[in-house]
Design brief:
Elements: H1 3-17, H2 22-25, H3 31-38, H4 46-56, H5 60-72, H6 76-92, H7 95-98, H8 108-114
Helix pairs in contact: 1-5, 4-5
Length: about 130
């Protein structure tokens, strides 16, 4: 299965499973574009995958993982194991530190101690950004 076909299949299945119409997804994109995606006539950018994941109630990573699983036939657990292995390797190589990307969420006690006195807690953001190195 091609990536376009996998995106089309997964997007349509997720939308229907959530009881959403193409018009509902068109709130974050155009209905014409959503229709093209679902017919495999267009390929979304990573930014669009992140944008479309919100109304579907999914993280962008979940949407991408399910799509890759549909494309390759690999079990999702296998993809997650590979992801964990590769992230561990990147951490050991110091790449995550260089990018200031934490491997794990600090415990609440550590977060309180590390926050400057009187500083406001961080505000959650719905934006997701994928960074790919050459």
């Amino acid at each position: 299965m091609s990536i376009k076909t996998a995106v089309a299949t997964v997007l349509k299945a997720m939308r229907k499973a959530r009881g959403l119409s193409q018009k509902d997804l068109a709130e974050v994109s155009s209905r014409t574009y959503v229709s093209k995606l679902e017919r495999g006539q267009s390929s979304p950018t990573l930014e669009m995958m992140a944008t479309l994941s919100a109304p579907l109630g999914l993280s962008p990573l979940t949407l991408v993982a399910v799509t890759i699983s549909a494309e390759t036939g690999q079990p999702i657990r296998s993809l997650i194991s590979r992801l964990e292995e590769e992230i561990g390797q990147l951490n050991e190589a110091g790449v995550l530190g260089e990018l200031q990307t934490p491997l794990a969420t600090p415990s609440p006690a550590n977060r309180v101690r590390s926050r400057a006195r009187g500083a406001l807690p961080p505000v959650a953001s719905n934006q997701t950004e994928f960074c790919f190195g050459d």
